[in-house]
Amino acid sequence: MANVALSRVCIFATRTSTKSSYWRGRSILCSSVKMASTRVSSPPAELLKPIHVPKKTLMGPGPSNAAPRVLEASALPILGHLHPEFCTIMDESKVGIQYAFQTKNELTLAISGTGHAGMEASIANIVEPGEVFLTAVKGIWGERAGDIADRYGAVVKTLTKPLGEVFSLEEVEQALKEHKPAAMYMCHSESSSGILQPLEGLGPLCAKYNCILIVDCVASLGAVPFFADELDLDVVYSGSQKCLSAPPGSAPITFGPRARAKMANRKTRVSSFYFDMEWLGNYWGCDEGPRKYHHTAPINSIYALREALAILAEQGLESFWKRHQECAELLWKGIEDMGLQMLVKNKDLRLPTVNTVCVPEGVDWKAVTVYIMKKYALEISGGLGPSAGKVWRIGLMGENCTQYNVELVLKALKDAIENCKQSKL
Q1: DSSP string, 13-55
Q2: Separation between Cα atoms, residue 137 and residue 115, nearest integer Å
């Protein structure tokens, strides 16, 4: 308290004295005394030792391990967010994203954020307060989209299906007729249940009812056949950390002609400055104007995304699709040979990237995942949302989608189930 009082006296004297130079010197002296008497806390002991990151094989629902060259790219020198060299890397990433989505949409870029950022950016730009938003709920992601739309002031309506089932065009059309939504959300790759939703006919159907279709392909882009333009989809977004095997932190997204027209005719301003596509599109060189500062992009994350997209381009989409399907079928056979069951019975509707295996009666799902991590340094996950406690989720994505890893995860799962059963006896 004495130090504080002395400081106040010195400040008062500085303001009132006619001998300003004398009191200015006294004020500096008092400040020095106050600073010297204030103790700085000790540096955190945790930060005085080297960082430790164990090597693990990530065979859960994401993220996946990245290729060494992707990690090397992320360690390249930092550039300014508007340096011409970085703008070139952005442009290269943009055409890579167009290739992955199979689209010619000009408004195609990577949001600075994870897949959730893609979801929120889609809704923030398309949906206005008071408009009806229809979300197709067959797992956690439809629920999450409805939550976000509600926060932006939409009137949220839901179309629901039990865990492990998909929507038919007839069911969607009935909901479009009934609710007359301005926009609809559909998850292509429902990673909480392992379902792959067919998209054929859905784009034209939504267009018929003047509804903008938003499609989530976070867990499928690069791993299964996907043709955004041919399917006539309005908005599609994904994430960098799953099948593309780049670090988390960027969300590829694309907007088609109907979506852009909807945004151009908004009656209200986009509530989120960070996700405003007019700004972001300009920053990513998607319009004819000079690029303007909007935010500082995650420079090194974009390097990594660009390199991951380069791997996709070098190997070819068809090769990626074939490898993911073959590894998934190998996994399914191994699961069946162990006497276990897949949640999704119809193989044509299984998501090959996030495979849901039913937890057998009498087995502690958590104990199995802990055993596998401890013994094999290998991650598989439990369920999420409505599938929690019911399934294990085994990821086969990007860099991790190999025959060797399939055989490893099958061996680890069999070992863990046998040992966890014995420990309960």
Answers
A1: HHHH-S-HHHHHHHHHHHHHHHHHHSPPPPPPGGGGS------
A2: 18
The strand ranges marked E within 63-211 are 107-112, 132-137, 155-160, 183-187, 189-190, 195-196
**How far apart are the C-alpha atoms of 166 and 169, rounded to whole Å?**
10
Q: Exposure of 26 by Cβ count < 10 A (0-12 exposed, 13-18 middle, 19+ buried)?
A: middle
Start-to-end CA span in the chain (Å)? 66
Contact call for residues 359 and 392 (beta carbons, < 8 A): yes
Question: Residue 347 in contact with residue 404, Cβ under 8 Å?
Answer: no
- Are 410 and 334 in contact, with CB atoms under 8 Å apart? yes
Phi/psi at 49 (nearest 5 deg)?
Answer: -130, 160
Of 278, 275, 279, 223, which Cα lies nearest the Cα of 251?
275
- Contact, 397 vs 115, CB < 8 A? no
Cα-Cα-Cα-Cα dihedral sign, residues 269, 275, 279, 285: negative
Q: How far apart are CA 286 and CA 85, in angstroms?
A: 17
State which H helix or E strand residue 12 sits in.
helix 2-16
Nearest to 129, CA basis, from 266, 236, 280: 266
Q: For the segment 265-303, what is each residue's pLDDT rounded down to a tens digit?
A: 999 999 999 999 999 999 999 999 999 999 999 999 999
Closest alpha carbon to 194 in 349, 66, 29: 349
Over 90: is that where the pLDDT of 127 sits? yes
Q: CA 262, 268, 269 angle in degrees (round to 5)?
A: 95
Cβ-based neighbours of 138, under 8 Å, separated by 6 or more: 160, 161, 162, 163, 165, 166, 167, 187, 190, 193, 195, 197
Q: Where are the alpha helices (DSSP H) in 225-316?
A: 257-264, 277-283, 299-315
For residue 38, the model assigns a pLDDT of: 86
Residue 39 main-chain phi, psi, to 5 deg: -85, 130
Q: DSSP per residue over 114-134, as a string?
A: -HHHHHHHHHHHH--TT-EEE
Q: Whats the size of the chain, residue-wise? A: 425
User: Tell me, what's the pLDDT at 116?
Assistant: 96
